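Section 3.1: Structural characterization of target chains.
Under the original work plan, the team committed to producing a structural model for every single-chain target entering the pipeline before any wet-lab resources were allocated. The record below documents one such target. The sequence was received from the expression subgroup and is listed exactly as submitted; it comprises 381 residues.
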Amino acid sequence: MIDKIRKGIKGNGYFDYSLFFIIIFMLCFGLVMLYSTSSYTAQIKYGNGARFLIRQLVFDVAGVGVMLFTCLLSPSFIKKFSNYIYLFTVLSIFLVYPLGVELNGARRWVGIGPMTFQPAELVKIGVIIIIAFLAEKMTRKIRTFKGSIGLMFCGWIPAGLVYICTENLSSALIIAGITFIMVFVASPNYKGYLAFIAFVAVVVIGVIAYCKTLDVNDAGTFRVQRVVTWLNGDTTITDENFQVVQGLYAIGSGGLFGKGLGKSVQKLGFVPEAENDMIYTIICEELGIIGGISVILLFLFMIWRFMIISTNASDLFSSMVVVGVMAHISIQVILNIAVVTASIPNTGVTLPFISYGGTSVLILLAEMGMVLGVSRRIKIE
């Protein structure tokens, strides 16, 4: 085992420093914005304005260690344990029943002693690895309808389990989206995928049309209520859209250049959980639209580096792993910004590297380590 790890540590002399430095910069920027956003709430609730900052700093440092470790592991070494990683992450979902911890009315966390983690985050990395492994193993079979559907279910079944066991719809959608993009890249059967996208669009339009006829009080489940309140805009302020409306006030009040770092008003108890899903609104309020666009450009630069690494990867497994990580980051950023700008109904999605969250940043940095590990093995002509 030790010999295998030592063999996997050797690279080809290339390392994507651009991606590495953008990751470190995003983590540092996230800590600055997290302290600015959460200091007031932390002082009121816990008597320590730096509470969220310290906890996130610990996770960031641990995450960088995990990133460096996974960077040293060769893709071939990870590939050998793909089935075990996938099985472990899927089985972790069921831990919410004996060891589940309820936070903010949701039972999505597993508590082991003083530590808690979200199984849904583990599943994301497990799905990326298994689909990359099977895409390489199936070769031409993946181009068939049967092969594509079979590979889809490797990601969609865990996505369904995440929704059923934890009622975490946003994470389930992200996992399903990662699966779809990876299978599409591995098997570009454009007609089939376009037909599927058209089918999903018809279903979404039908749901929206149905919700349009409902009143908020008759909407039933809280998810339907969110869709109804989203369709009604800010004409009807309810508990379901209060957070988003306050976030829009923050974005609008920031103007072009913002009020200045630390000078947000909406973070003073007006935007609930501002340090989590809604941190982008505080960025826009304090740094303005210019700051908000700059954050988007940073993520676009990161995605561009993913594309470069994936294109030049030494094997299909490595390339598909990078595609999966790229899909994960892209989907999560798009959903987060779409939610806080009221472009889609409200759902809980964090902004990668910036929002508060331990499990999320650990898994993201583990994925970044795998991508950097792929870059280390690019053959330089």
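The chain has one domain: 2-376.
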